[in-house]
Design brief:
Blueprint (H helix, E strand, L loop, with lengths): L5 E8 L5 H11 L17 H6 L6 E8 L5 E8 L7 H8 L4 E7 L6 H12 L3 E7 L8 H12 L7 E2 L8 H11 L12 E10 L3 E10 L2 E2 L3 E4 L4 E4 L2 E5 L3 E3 L2 E2 L4 E5 L13 E4 L17 E7 L5 H13 L5 E7 L3 E8 L2 H14 L4 E3 L3 E2 L1 E5 L4 E4 L11 E16 L3 H10 L3 E8 L2 E9 L1 H4 L2 H8 L5 E12 L1 E8 L2 E2 L5 E4 H18 L7 E7 L2 E8 L15 H16 L1 E4 L2 E4 H8 L3
Parallel strand pairs: 1-3, 1-4, 4-5, 5-6
Antiparallel strand pairs: 2-3, 7-8, 7-16, 8-15, 9-14, 10-11, 10-16, 12-13, 12-15, 17-19, 17-20, 17-21, 18-19, 22-23, 22-24, 24-26, 24-27, 25-26, 28-29, 28-30, 28-31, 31-32, 33-34
Helix pairs in contact: 3-4, 12-14
Bound molecules: guanosine-5'-triphosphate (GTP).
Guanosine-5'-triphosphate binds next to helix 1.
Length: about 600
């Protein structure tokens, strides 16, 4: 296809503003998929994505469109992940296209992810067409949202289109806007091959499938190509496009987006953002390439230790398809064998954990998520700390640095006070506060470790779900951090140890031991529960001994009640782990770490 008749674009939106529905509608209205094959949300392929309503892996579709001017165009849509955990993938895939549709729910308005995603699009020099969606709903207010887009984002909303992705209203106008408002790609068809690796995933029949955007030159079947970041050479077996089903083609030229397969075994061998060229060609790599780095670590242990090998198998399989997920074996005195895993963020962690539990049927104990600390020793060396249990002796440590984020929060006025308090409680430093209509735009500098555990939950609950949140990593800064250990019956439970700020250690320690006291069932003996820093106990509770058999309180001969209680005890036992002589239920690990 001639460059002048190609348009490459992505859709950016806040979660639930209708990105997938709009994509489906664009595909459907151009007959890219036969009506009977159209299942809702074509682009969200994984079940889990559909269930959670979030888009994780970038996907793509090629749409043929005959415009009102009678000319035929090829429109390539790259679907970008919508969540902050995948910000790096978003920013990479944006660089593969020239424009974006900015979908804003016209009943809601601009939200934090709208902003974050627009910034990625602007960074990638995109032309942006605002789309005001859900105009079929009575609460839709297009002029208010247009004003917001101009005031908050500073984007001209005069070319915006009012759409209902549900009824199809405004869809043709959207397609026309893609053709007339977005620029055609540029590229040199006769130059040496230069392609960007946009995404890759594992397919059990074809091996790794690599999504590419051709910048210059041509890519043909059978050719040998080189991945510049690691110098590997691959023979191209297939090339093709997505409509959205895979369809083979003979070649891909500049401006085109398609896939290649080349007997690549693992997704880890492909790096998003890498530059691909012919084996013998030399080209300057695309700028800004860096592999995605895990920022949140936690331990995953099977509840049933006999399932360790099954867990290994599950993790190996998941890692094949997810290069940003890292893992290494870990053994813990309390939890036995498991894995220390690294994730891009909390959502990524939850998705992987859910998949292991659901698809592989392994119950897991998840230890407290921890960020990566930089521990500077007195001898001048620095090491990364992925697990609080590995914290070296404090007397050898010079100082500790922790990652900080810039958090952007949009919140209706009436909840602003609660949001400021929450951020302040989490050691935040306010860096900006402005108003957009009846909402405040708050920017905070926060330690990532105060955010990883339950910040989203807290934010949602103090604002009744009306706040939206996004963040970017800012770098490392020193602070007074210490390791807090938890001892149950005088035995340290390493899975519960955590890094905390010194000034907050006592409050956290107290909250932790009080919670554990409620969560651990009584035993036949007295159990001390303590929080300590180094050798110093900072909080202590004692769980008193159980007096009688639990069934004793069911006086009379109610056998079924008695049976129920015993069953309940048995079920409870299944999910418990033995620590020395104490049983700790699985929920204790997660609940104990939540702050109130
Ligand atoms: P993520 O993939 O989770 O980022 O969400 P999304 O932005 O793709 O949103 P999605 O398309 O899943 O739409 C969210 C909800 O809004 C769904 O229940 C849709 O059915 C609904 N929806 C989308 N567009 C419209 C519309 O134009 N009108 C109405 N009434 N509902 C819509």
């Amino acid at each position: 296809t001639a460059l002048s008749h190609i348009r490459n674009f992505s859709i950016v939106a806040h979660i639930d503003h209708g990105k997938s529905t709009l994509a489906d509608r664009l595909i459907q209205s151009t007959n890219t998929v036969a009506e009977r094959d159209m299942k809702a949300q074509m682009l969200d392929s994984m079940d889990i994505e559909r269930e959670r309503g979030i888009t994780i892996k970038a996907n793509t579709v090629r749409i043929d469109y005959t415009a009102k001017n009678g000319e035929s165009y090829v429109l390539n849509l790259i679907d970008t992940p919508g969540h902050v955990d995948f910000a790096y993938e978003v920013s990479r895939s944006m660089r593969a296209v020239e424009g974006s549709l900015l979908v804003v729910d016209s009943t809601q308005g601009v939200e934090a992810q709208t902003l974050a995603n627009v910034y990625h699009a602007l960074d990638a020099d995109h032309e942006i067409v605002p789309i005001f969606n859900k105009i079929d709903l009575p609460a839709s207010d297009v002029s208010r949202v247009a004003q917001q887009v101009e005031d908050v984002i500073g984007l001209d909303a005069s070319g915006a289109i009012a759409v209902s992705a549900k009824t199809g209203e405004g869809i043709i106008e959207t397609l026309e806007a893609i053709v007339h408002q977005l620029p055609a790609p540029k590229g040199d068809p006769d130059g040496p091959l230069k392609a960007m690796l946009v995404d890759s995933w594992y397919d059990s029949y074809l091996g790794v499938i690599v999504l590419v955007r051709i910048i210059d030159g041509k890519l043909r079947k059978g050719e040998k190509v080189k991945f510049i970041s690691n110098g590997t050479i691959h023979q191209v077996e297939r090339i093709g496009v997505f409509r959205p089903k895979m369809e083979n083609v003979d070649e891909l030229g500049p401006g085109e987006i398609g896939f290649l397969t080349a007997s690549i075994k693992q997704v880890r061998d492909t790096r998003v953002g890498d530059t691909i060229t012919h084996q013998k060609s030399e080209v300057t790599p695309l700028p800004g390439f860096k592999p995605a780095q895990p920022v949140v670590f936690c331990g995953l242990f099977p509840v049933d230790s006999a399932l360790f090998e099954d867990l290994r198998d599950a993790i190996d399989k998941l890692a094949l398809n997810d290069a940003s997920f890292s893992f290494e074996m870990e053994s813990s005195a309390a939890l036995g064998f498991g894995f220390r895993c690294g994730f891009l963020g909390l959502l990524h962690l939850e998705v992987i954990r859910d998949r292991i539990e659901r698809e592989y049927d392994i119950d897991l104990i998840t230890t407290a998520p921890s960020v990566v600390y930089e521990v500077y020793m007195r001898d001048g060396t620095m090491s990364e700390l992925h697990n609080p249990a590995d914290m070296p002796d404090m007397t050898l440590v010079d100082h500790i640095e922790e990652p900080r984020i810039k958090a952007t929060i949009l919140v209706p006025d009436e909840y602003l006070g609660d949001v400021l308090k929450l951020c302040q409680d989490r050691r935040g430093i306010q860096s900006d506060l402005t108003y957009a209509g009846s909402r405040a735009l708050v920017v905070y500098d926060l330690p990532l470790n105060e955010v990883v555990f339950d910040f989203y939950d807290r934010l949602k609950s103090v604002t009744k779900g009306y706040a939206s949140f996004d963040y970017t990593l800012m770098g490392y800064r020193e602070d007074a951090l210490v390791k807090m250990s938890v001892l149950v019956n005088d035995e340290p439970v390493d899975a519960l140890s955590m890094m905390v700020h010194r000034d907050r250690a006592e409050v956290r320690g107290r909250a932790m031991v009080e919670k554990l006291k409620d969560l651990i069932p009584r035993h036949m003996f007295k159990i001390p529960i303590q929080a300590a820093i180094g050798g110093k106990v900072i909080a202590r509770e004692t769980l008193s001994a159980m007096r009688k058999d639990v069934t004793a309180k069911c006086y009379g001969g109610d056998a079924s009640r008695k049976r129920k209680l015993l069953d309940k005890q048995k079920a409870g036992k299944k999910k418990m782990r033995q620590f020395g002589s104490v049983n700790i239920p699985q929920e204790a690990f997660i609940s104990a770490l939540k702050m109130d």
